[in-house]
Amino acid sequence: MIRATSLALTLFLLPASGAMAAEILIHDAKSQPESLAAAADGTLFVGSASSPYIYRVKKGATAADVFVDAGNEGAGTFFLGQLVDDNAKTLWACQLTPVPGTTPAMRRTALRGFDLASGKEKLRWNLPGDNTTCNDFVTGPDKALYISDTATGRIFRLAPGAQTADLWQEHRLLNGIDGLTFLDGVLYVNNVVYNKLYRIPVDASGKPGTPVDIWFDAPMRGLDGMRAANGKMFVANGGSGTVAALTIKDDTAHVTILKDGVATPTGVEPAGDTLWYTERGVGKIWSIPMPR
Q1: Which among 32, 30, 26 has a CA at the least distance from the CA of 64?
Q2: Is a pLDDT exceeding 70 seen at residue 254?
Q3: What pLDDT sits at residue 2?
Q4: Does CATH number 2.120.10.30 belong to domain 32-289?
């Protein structure tokens, strides 16, 4: 790794459409927006890590409304990952609910699917185990949903049309897995505990192999939400307060810092000519023009 002083300077180039930056408070400063997703019509869905709500921000709006209320699911329920599947008209969300009376604290988690228009539940699948952390997910080239479980180091796969997911990979290097995304048809996952990024090789039969370490050419800390667009990977780094773009070549990731000084960024979402990210520490989401 090179020293922190060699990090790239922030540089934004406005796209041809002239997208402008936006700032939106999600309910209040304590709402802790953890992950967000954008629908094709410009609607944003934002999960809260401090409340049992998924918020919705309609295109052009400057305020959020409650889209999903899971307040009857148990004390301390909250949401992490959010992902929109426009073709299936589905919002995917990771729900976490503490197990009462456990020390250290344990959580049971569920993958939930909601209708994009009404918020009505379409699917619910509880992750197997007594203490799990459904954290994030991504739709693969095979149209399946790949789901990360941070607490157990597992990736699950929900096949198209299925009601339950299957264990796809379990590996010690994945203990602490958080964000995951496909770039050029290849699955990449990060580790929020050990500040790592891995490529998951897959053989001809579709079986995953040992995760391959991707080296950063600049320090990264607290890797969290991760999405890909325009040949780049975008990562929210909660530990360093930055949002970064990664250009990957030969298992090395070139790091470009897009924003720094962010109070705990945990989610990132490219949407056309706009890049959205969460600032969990102050209850806000922000957008910047998509860097070229």
Answers
A1: 26
A2: yes
A3: 33
A4: yes
Q: Is 212 left (phi over 0), alpha (psi -120 to 50) or beta?
A: beta
Which residues are CB-neighbours of 118 under 8 A, at least 6 positions away?
none
| 3-state percent breakdown (helix, strand, coil) of the chain, nearest 5 | 5, 50, 45
Backbone angles phi, psi at 173, to 5 degrees: -70, -15
| Residue 8 predicted with pLDDT over 80 | no
Structure tokens of 181? 């995304």
Instruction: Write down the pLDDT at residue 119.
Output: 98
Tokens of 266: 């945990």
**Neighbour count for residue 239 (Cβ, 10 Å):** 15
CB crowding 87-108: b at 16 or more within 10 Å, else e: ebebbbbbbbbeeeeeeeeebb
Euclidean distance between CA atoms 43 and 269, whole angstroms: 12
CA dihedral 200, 217, 228, 258 (to 10 degrees): 160
Q: Where are the domains of the chain?
A: 32-289
SS (H, E, C) 186-245: EEEEEECCCCEEEEECECCCCCECCCEEEEECCCCCCEEEEEEECCEEEEEECCCCEEEE
Instruction: Write down the pLDDT at residue 21.
Output: 77
pLDDT band with cut points at 50, 70 and 90 for residue 20: low
Structure tokens that stand for 10 in this block: 């922030």
pTM of the model: 0.93
